[in-house]
Amino acid sequence: MKNAAIYIRVSTQEQVENYSIEVQKERLEAFCKAKGLNVYNTYIDGGFSGATLNRPALKSMLNDIKEIDTVIVYKLDRLSRSQKDTLELIEEYFLKNKVDFISITETLDTSTPFGKAMIGILSVFAQLERETIAERMRMGHIKRAENGLRGMGGDYDPAGYFRKDGALHVNEEEAKHVKRAFDLYEQYHSITKIQERLKEEGYKVWRFRRYRDILANKLYIGYVSFAGKHYKGQHTPFIEEEQFYRVQDLLERHKGHNAHKAKKALLVGLITCDKCGENYVSYSTSSRATRSYGRIYYYYTCRARRFPSEYEEKCANKNWNRQKLEQMVLNEMKKIIVNKNNDKGPVNKINYDKLIKEVDLKLERILELYSTNTNISPDILEKQVEKINLEKEKLLEKKLKQAKENEPNKVLDKINKLVINFDEMSFSDKQAIVNSLIENITVNENDVSIDWRF
């Protein structure tokens, strides 16, 4: 027998207008009985607007989506009053999880060919609206670019310029910085050397990547760009075209010299320096002599040590041999998985579904009382509904927390099977497993601390 989730939403005003919880519940349960569907759970959002998806019972239902075969509502607008949100729920949550959706009033049923066709028609119109808006925005951007009014980055001031009245104007102080970077790159052919020299000359040094982007940007010779195309701008250029293209030749010549050196760094993006708070980066080094023998040494190092010109002072935290640190972390990973799998004691579960149903009944009684007693102040009702919904939200949070606490063992069982074959996996698969298990790695000299995700 298929599991059906009954979803009910009602606002205080709709409670009076014959959309009461009891009316919806009665008709939906009768529908399930007639169709031979088992009611898995009834999810009730009382006193919530259909203009938002931020509803506790709706969130709870989506969290249980793997256990559900069909979602049933009394009327389509009970799910949402927004067509966009309705389609998002149906397409991104229900259909992707092979869950049918039924609205008994509109006789909309995605398990039937007609119901699927109706969703398809609604989706086509929604997609048409999205693409029309996107095309209008794109044409507007192109028009601005053709008029020379679009600058690097679109919405922020590019280095060497500031925005005023929708146009770019030269920032003289930053323009000197950019010009000096072009001059120094022609001299040293190295962005790291540029940073060192600029720091010596008293400039506030930017990040490596920013200089790389600046040196390749046609903005400085008078062009603006959009969608990969360049247009003649209305701003004042301050780099000579001859120099710009000389720099492009140098950049092209050095392109790939350091490429892919850190590609196989398993822990990149996970390591934090405990001394200065910066990330650790991967890099490789070799001398001319060792390179001829194919000997390249790989390390993890603090970014403030690798690029000291970008910081007030150079970090002195330890460099780690890449292979040694990765092996240490992998050993800890395998060890902790074994320990976690062996640590499966008895768990006392609280029946939060029962407690939530009791809260729903309490809410139902209050709304029913309001619909039959017009002497009750709407303000008092709203406060009571808000109080009950807050109680329900807390119960739903506790239910989710309890479910997560009981879930790791299943997850770890699966991961444990993967880790057994870890050494035979591709690099991308290894990295996916490491990232799914590790939140952060903190390094302080020889001390390595691992924060796990479970």
From TrEMBL:
SMART domains: Resolvase. The active site is at S11 (o-(5'-phospho-dna)-serine intermediate). The keyword DNA-binding applies. Residues 3-148 form the Resolvase/invertase-type recombinase catalytic domain. This is Recombinase family protein. SUPFAM superfamilies: Resolvase-like (SSF53041). InterPro entries: DNA_bind_recomb_sf, DNA_bind_recombinase_dom, Recombinase_CS, Resolv_N, Resolvase-like_N_sf, SSR_resolvase, Zn_ribbon_recom_dom. Residues 158-257 form the Recombinase domain. Keywords: DNA integration, DNA recombination, DNA-binding. Pfam families: Recombinase (PF07508), Resolvase (PF00239), Zn_ribbon_recom (PF13408). PROSITE patterns: RECOMBINASE_DNA_BIND (PS51737), RECOMBINASES_1 (PS00397), RECOMBINASES_3 (PS51736). It comes from Cytobacillus stercorigallinarum.
